């Protein structure tokens, strides 16, 4: 049971380049999330998904797109990277059922945009 | 809009001390509150989750309390150890789907 995994772990992009970050979970969770973490600002929600085929905007969605074609995968895309998107990106998932809505986090992807 | 604040931003204590980390939030209509630990360059590890109907949760040397009406939570760490050195994050779930995080408290426990 690997939990939540993210690929790649590190990436350097030039301004204007595109890339996709992959999040995978093997816990059969319904909900998945993408956050970014910047120094001194905690984590902020970018987009989330409440089930296969659904996505919704979070607090800071501009410049990002997401897709949830399979229940276990949640993709985060940057169509035209900007230096302001330099950050550490975390994916998380949780089970819809149950009173405890604990989120489980992946190890993060460190992205630098030059 | 929910805002979460953690004080202090950084804390350095000698080994063996008991310590308290603080978290405050502006909107008391929450589902639950979660405390996380983050080691440098790593992801988040969930420590404790307190439901809105609960007052506290305990796990080993950690105890988290919640006072929903005043918008406060504390994380108490007993007999601190160098291995406790990390950043501690508080997050509030008040919309069923989204967590709002504080900025974290960076803890250093000196041997």
Number of helices of chain A: 0
Structural class, from helix and strand content of chain B?
A: mainly beta
Distance N to C terminus of chain B: 41 Å
The low-pLDDT segments of chain B are none
Strand content of chain B: over 45%
The general outline of chain B is globular
The H-and-E topology of chain B, N to C, reads as EEEEEEEEEEE
The H/E string of chain A reads EEEEEEEEEEE
Instruction: Give the rounded overall mean pLDDT of chain B.
Output: 93
Please bin the fraction of helical residues of chain A: under 10%
Please tally the β strands of chain A and state the result.
11
Largest interface, Cβ cutoff 8 Å = A-B, 27 and 25 residues
What value does the average pLDDT of chain A take? 92
Biggest β-sheet description of chain B: 6 strands, mixed
Category from helices, strands and their pairing of chain A: mainly beta
**Major sheet details of chain A:** 7 strands, mixed
Query: Regions of chain A with pLDDT < 50 over 5+ consecutive residues?
Result: none
Helix content of chain B: under 10%
Number of strands of chain B: 11
